[in-house]
């Protein structure tokens, strides 16, 4: 059972292919040697390529059985005899390029039923419109007037609501539910995500009346959304996820949020209603943002930051409440010094008893 693999073993790349792909220099290499897999430097075998980019991996490098290894020039002297060395100052980026080339099918979900077309057991409303080459797995439900573009895959038990539009070459993971949504091309949504449900809104009085949420979710081209993400539809404006943005697993995007292009939102982060992330903003893991805030273009928030004010463009903030990076680090250093002084005082007091 341990030998079972979930991705097809590729025919491989020669060292010459890899050098051309990555722009690396192959030192004393057998250019026809074929690489068919990737592995960590300590586990790699003769048909695998590995990489090293830090001193802590030198011991693994000296003992490696890899067929080839990507590394900066400063590590070459530690390479064992016979190892094919590919020199580059950015070994991890080169390694990713090789990994992507060897295993392109890993880059997006496929049909879990390995089906083509509409499977038995899928339910497609007669008014839904599916272009050519759409795959619908068993148990999926596609509602009235929904539109799905060519080459898209709807995995098992996903539910696509009425009037939803899904573009071309999209991947909708198993168990997703998508309502009140317009989606562009090449969007990937991983299993279990919920998109388009109503947002959390009640009047602040004893009656706690529910506030109507009549907007939509707009997801632009090339967005990727992780597993078990929730994205609420807008209240009186649309919730928007901008082109090529990436949202990690287990994130919450509240109603009316505006996420710009090429933003990154890491796991467990939560955006309250009407938050704006401008283009290229980056949120570390478990960041929380209060309602109606703006994170400026290219700004970065450290993991577990609690944000209660706008973040200027291009700045890095962290902490709770979040503050500019240097101010946050000075505060942490001061607290550490105070804690150390307190420990010394307690030891001194005990010693004088």
Assembly type = single chain
CATH architecture of one domain: 3-Layer(aba) Sandwich
DSSP helix count? Answer: 4
**Relative strand content:** 15-25%
Roughly how many Å apart are the termini?
A: 65 Å
User: Which spans of ≥5 residues are poorly predicted at pLDDT below 50?
Assistant: none
Residue share in helices? 10-25%
- CATH names the topology of one domain as Udp-n-acetylmuramoylalanyl-d-glutamate--2,6- Diaminopimelate Ligase, Chain: A, domain 1
Largest sheet: 11 strands, mixed
CATH class of one domain: Alpha Beta
Number of strands: 37
Mean pLDDT, rounded to whole units?
Answer: 95
Please give the order of strands in the largest beta sheet: 10-13-16-19-22-25-28-31-34-36-37
Structural class of the helix and strand makeup? Answer: alpha/beta
Subunit structure: Homotrimer.
Pfam family, one: LpxD
Pathway: Bacterial outer membrane biogenesis; LPS lipid A biosynthesis
InterPro entries: Hexapep, Hexapep_transf_CS, LpxD, Trimer_LpxA-like_sf, UDP_GlcNAc_AcTrfase_non-rep
Describe the structure.
The chain is of the alpha/beta class. The chain has a domain at 13-107: Udp-n-acetylmuramoylalanyl-d-glutamate--2,6- Diaminopimelate Ligase, Chain: A, domain 1 (3-Layer(aba) Sandwich), CATH 3.40.1390.10. Helices cover 15% and strands 24% of the residues. The chain is built from four helices and 37 strands. It has an eleven-stranded mixed beta sheet. The longest helix is centred in the last third of the chain and has 28 residues, at 325-352. It is flat, with a radius of gyration of 26 Å.
């Amino acid at each position: 059972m341990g030998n079972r693999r979930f991705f097809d073993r590729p025919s491989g790349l020669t060292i010459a292919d890899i050098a051309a792909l990555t722009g690396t220099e192959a030192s004393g290499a057998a250019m026809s040697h074929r690489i068919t897999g990737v592995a960590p430097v300590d586990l790699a075998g003769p048909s695998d390529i590995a990489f090293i980019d830090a001193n802590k991996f030198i011991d693994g490098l000296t003992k490696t059985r890899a067929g080839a290894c990507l590394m900066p020039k400063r590590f070459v002297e530690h390479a064992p005899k016979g190892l094919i060395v590919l020199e580059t100052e950015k070994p991890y980026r080169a390694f990713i390029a090789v990994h992507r080339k060897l295993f392109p099918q890993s880059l997006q979900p496929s049909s879990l039923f390995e089906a083509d077309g509409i499977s038995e057991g899928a339910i497609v409303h007669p008014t839904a419109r599916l272009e050519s080459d759409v795959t619908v797995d068993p148990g999926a439900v596609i509602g009235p007037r929904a539109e799905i573009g060519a080459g898209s895959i709807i995995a098992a038990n996903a539910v696509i609501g009425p009037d939803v539009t899904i573009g071309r070459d999209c991947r909708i993971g198993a168990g997703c539910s998508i309502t009140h949504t317009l989606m562009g091309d090449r969007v990937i949504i991983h299993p279990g995500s919920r998109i388009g449900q109503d947002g959390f809104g009640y009047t602040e009085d004893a009656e706690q009346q529910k506030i109507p949420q009549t907007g939509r979710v707009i997801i632009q081209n090339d967005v990727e959304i992780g597993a078990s993400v929730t994205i609420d539809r807008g209240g009186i404006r649309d919730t928007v996820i901008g082109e090529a943005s990436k949202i990690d697993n287990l994130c919450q995007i509240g109603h009316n949020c505006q996420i710009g292009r090429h933003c990154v939102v890491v796991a467990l982060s939560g955006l309250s209603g009407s938050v704006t992330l401008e283009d290229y903003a980056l949120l570390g893991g478990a960041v929380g943002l209060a309602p109606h805030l703006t994170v400026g273009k290219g700004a970065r928030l450290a993991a577990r930051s609690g944000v209660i004010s706008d973040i200027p463009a291009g700045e890095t903030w962290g902490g709770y409440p979040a503050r500019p990076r240097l101010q946050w680090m000075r505060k942490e250093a001061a607290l550490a010094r105070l804690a150390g002084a307190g420990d010394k005082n307690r030891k001194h007091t005990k010693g004088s008893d």
